[in-house]
Amino acid sequence: EEPQPQADSTKEGYHERTEMEPVLVTRTEEIEEIRSKLPAVAAEQRIMEIIHHFDVCVVTGETGSGKTTQVPQFLFEAGYCNNKQMIGITQPRRVAAVSMAQRIGEELNGFAKVGYQIRFDRKVDNSTQIKLMTDGVLIREMSTDLLLTKYSCLIIDEAHERSVNTDILIGLLSRIVIYRRQQNNPLKLIIMSATLRVTDFVDNSKLFRITPQVINIDSRQFTVTNHFSRRTNPDYVDEAITKVKRIHNRLPDGGILVFLTGKEEIERVVEALSEPNTRRTTPAVQFSSKNSCLEDEFMDANVDEEVVNDLDDFKSDEQEDDIEEGVDMTQERSSKKLKVLPLYSLLSTEDQMRVFEKCPKNTRLCVVATNVAETSLTIPNIKYVVDCGRSKQKVFENGVQRFSIKYTSKASADQRSGRAGRTGPGHCYRLYSSAVFERDFPQFMDPEILRMPVEGLVLQMKAMGIDKIDNFPFPTEIPNSSLKDAIRTLQCLLALDSEGKITELGNQMSLFPLAPRHAKMLLIGNQNKCLNLIIGLVSAMSVPNLFNYPSSTSDPDNVKEDEDKKESKLPVIQAQADVLQSLAAIAAYSWTPTSDICVSLSLRYKAMRETEELRKQLCRLVAQILAPDGVSTLQKQLSEPLNIPTPTQISTLMQVVAAAYIDQVAIRQHLVHPSEETQKLSVRQVSRTPYETCSGQVVYIHPSTIMKQAPDLIVYESLLVSSTDKVRMRPLTVVSLSQLSLLAKSTPLLTYSKPLGGVYKAKVYEKRGETYQESWVVPRFGFSQW
Ligand code: ADP
Ligand code: MG
């Protein structure tokens, strides 16, 4: 029996309930049947009692207990949309926002208007009553409506993930709730989280003055038996394949869910398992020979080196057969087919949704997923989990990005195994030993705010009028150094003044759903006659992983001589500006927006669709700002298909890029002798030429470059570490010394120009005869001299 409602009227923060007319919803029998089994539905009265009487609460419960799909429906039925206000739900992942909107709409059977909004896609209008969105979208909405008056309730979902945006939202909302109460238009804030790490939000007096109410949904989680491996095999991908085959061949019915770290691994497993009657068709790939440096696809060669260690039991070289251990074998063994589906964020939405399709009779479902399936999406009928115990993590250190595969946390390993116990007792096969688990897995993952650069966030907050960022109630404070870096970058872009106050330019930049540098490009491009091209370029730069050819994903230190160049089929716009290849991509796509063109040009269709979507959105925004009276004309003009730029336009584009990345310049350690200048180099030679950044770090050009020479000065987009520990830069464009000093001194391209101040000096070397001599001085960006 459900415990009685317990909205204690003596507790601090208790309010009398506002009377509301409930909304009657009739659902299909099938849906009612499913709902009746959900723990959240059993707890409806308890949850709603608290929400009615308190402004802030925290709802926790096992993944799959029905928090995300049910709580919005409870609110809707209770009448929280009656005054034309909406119920908003945020998600850290786009996949979840879209699929949950669909599911909630289905369950509500047409009685409510359910929409969603993510950065590149929206299905919302004036009549929307329940809106799912990514946390970033809600933060943007705050810049025009700080008190979020459109919403009667806001659910911040998956708060345990501690994404930067979720953290900021909770900080901001902790104050907004108080204002809304004062204005007699209370906002209900519901923080939802899977694991019980609620102390970060609850016992944090800086965050909530009144301790939030905590409601725990007791779920009927069945027992899951964890089977550790006797030793930790570094090639967990191969091991996962073997394990799935064994489970499928030997164990009773029930879906299999495999956790891996990224697209490449997943596709390898899907391929190996999809072939009928496969034995070991995939070679045991040597990880060190196949690495990738691309954002979503990084595999670190050395990551597992420390894995085989003294803690593991070496005696049992023959790993198995633990597979039948503890499993109820009274059921028929499987003679079924295996339906294998991948699930990761780079997949198209339609493909992602296939995991929810009904599985045909006589077929066992096997989903091979990243940690998307850990808490955001619950795949029905999973009985077996195979967990590699790792996840891909993005780390920034001194401005250098590093993607590496690391052990996940104990908390997330437990989440993963929990996926096997939704519909009955389950089994989790952990591809690591219990000793490694105990010793090497951290209890929890660090919140994202401790790992990411925050300039976008700082600009957004400054634009909202939050000046003292160090006083802001973050669930976890921004590290001092990353706050300093962010302010410095924004000052360099002239978005903040020397005191850290937001400038007019900064305010304008904050209006765009873009990284500050990209917003700046738009604003300075506005002064030149190629705004449509800049919009296209910025859109392409804002979407990661446009290109599909291996050179962009393979290990920079293992590129075969010039081999990769064959695969890029885009025309080279300007051999000194890699960045313009993205423009070439969007230009081609803008004429023929089809998946065929993407295949033939080796572009990623999903990414190109997003780029084009963003381009349209930016055209609208820019037109609204520049020509409030003639929005549609200008918008139409801007969004026409893009032509390849003329030479004059090319040089303007290169300058605009340089201006926005003015603090990210690298200079060649040894300047080229004039006679060497015209010599064509191989990719390998180009990528072996040492450069030095403004802070004196030695870096090399990423071999995905189109450059055939190693120029003196390069503006780069980002730095990343490759498997040999070399720091690689993704080049954007070449700049000339005179351009650079001009940009640095007076930033003449800027709308609000202001001298950058300071004396910039750098040591460089010139080849004189056989020796290199220190000789001349170029701009160097020593911020300490400000
Ligand atoms: P929680 O948020 O507590 O993790 P959810 O509300 O996401 O739980 O899931 C509740 C149930 O709804 C799960 O059993 C899940 O499988 C099911 N479900 C969610 N989305 C879909 C969908 N698109 N199709 C079918 N079932 C779904
Ligand atoms: Mg959920």
From TrEMBL:
Keywords carried by this UniProt record: ATP-binding, Helicase, Hydrolase, Nucleotide-binding
Catalysed reactions, as listed in the record: ATP + H2O = ADP + phosphate + H(+)
Annotated EC: 3.6.4.13
Sequence ranges assigned to domain Helicase C-terminal in this UniProt record: 236-465
Keyword ATP-binding carried by entry: yes
Recorded superkingdom: Eukaryota
EC class of the enzyme, as a word: hydrolase
GO process terms (BP): maturation of SSU-rRNA from tricistronic rRNA transcript (SSU-rRNA, 5.8S rRNA, LSU-rRNA)
UniProt family annotation: Belongs to the DEAD box helicase family. DEAH subfamily.
Protein name: RNA helicase
Organism placement in taxonomy: Eukaryota, Fungi, Dikarya, Ascomycota, Saccharomycotina
